[in-house]
Amino acid sequence: MLLVCAGCTQPATPPATPTPTAISTPVPEQMDIVETAVADGRFTTLVAAIQAADLATTLSGPGPFTVFAPTDDAFNKLPEGTVETLLQDPEGQLSQILLYHVVPGKLMASDVVQQTSLTTVQGEPLTITVQNQTVMVDGAMVIITDIETKNGVIHVIDSVMIPPA
Question: What's the predicted TM-score (pTM) here?
Answer without folding.
Answer: 0.81
